[in-house]
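Reviewers of the previous submission asked for a worked example of the structure-prediction workflow described in the proposal, so we include one complete record here. The input consisted solely of the amino acid sequence. No template or homolog information was supplied to the procedure at any stage.
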Amino acid sequence: MAIAIRVLPFFLLALGMFLYPQDVVSSAATGLALWWKYVLPALLPFFILSELLMGAGFVHFLGVLLEPLMRPVFHLPGKASFVVAMGYTSGIPIGAVLTTKLRQQNQLSQVEGERLLAFTSNPSPGFMFGAVASGMLGKPELGIVLAGSVYLSNLIVGIVFRFYRYQATEGGSNYSFSFQRAWQELSRAQNEDGRPFGQLLGDAVRQSVNTVLLIGGFITFFSVLINILNISGITSLLAYILNSLTRGLLTLQMTTSLLNALFETTLGCRTSIQTFLDLHIQIAVLSAVMGWGGLSVFAQVASFTSGTDCRFSAFFIGRVLQTLLAPILSQFLLHFINLPAAASIPGLSHMMSSSITASLLTWRYSVWVFCGFMMLFLGIILWFRFQPQR
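From that input alone, the workflow returned the following structure tokens.
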């Protein structure tokens, strides 16, 4: 009986694909276009860069330098700072990928890996500033509100998770800064790796391409799944049930929009803008949708962490907390943005005029955030460097 229950969903999905072949092809093409325009340019360069930096020992170097920051604030080793920076720079699911690598190399304990998973999954800055704020809303100035609410809520989740399964003896109490020790750790890591640059670069490109292709497969699959659920009427049925449970507080269109957001971020953002006409409600829903990430992202993270002992529940709880916090912070940040009294809601414009434009804008925003984090880390390093040693 249990085997039949596990097989039934896949059988129904296969049946739906046979019944709606043209819609399957169309939705698959949509998913691939989304991957090509936004995911590939945002993730591939930074996947390669992260592999190179890890192979060159930069993570070990940064780990020693930022131990005085990461331990007291997040109860994480300094090496986790690299994952945090790349997560904010490149977006989902690079945080899960790097966390998995560090856990497999025993650079993180099981509990530390779970803490890190809880707050290192964010949309890329290119998606928030370019695709949503500029393309969907037609208001680039709202990008800082969306990104600010998502990033701040994410940091709060990280601080909350510092208490997750924490033990007083964990990590010791020596947080002293030492540039010399950090340099020695970098040299030791390079000697242990031992790969020449050519091999390191080739391995980085090969692994990064495989990872990005895997992500593209997930995006395409969920694009097809969501379309089948919509055209088969299942989404409408679930929306009707949810509408009945809320006693009409949420309309059928609203519940349908929220169900789409449950599965996939981009579709959820599009339908939310069409459904909710008030700007404040739009911003709140958009920030919640991007904080949640969608079941497509959940599946990606689960696939990467399945090779470790890190429990998925920490990631799930982190997403729920961020989904609740982001809308509240977005309303607070809206007070600092000067908007017209009557904000016109444009029809859904094209996210970008062309694939090349989308790729360039996504890359530009990601590079800006990456450079900002590197400058921030440099400032923190210099600050600790000139503090009196205890």
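The mean pLDDT is 81. We consider this example representative of the routine output the project will generate in years two and three.
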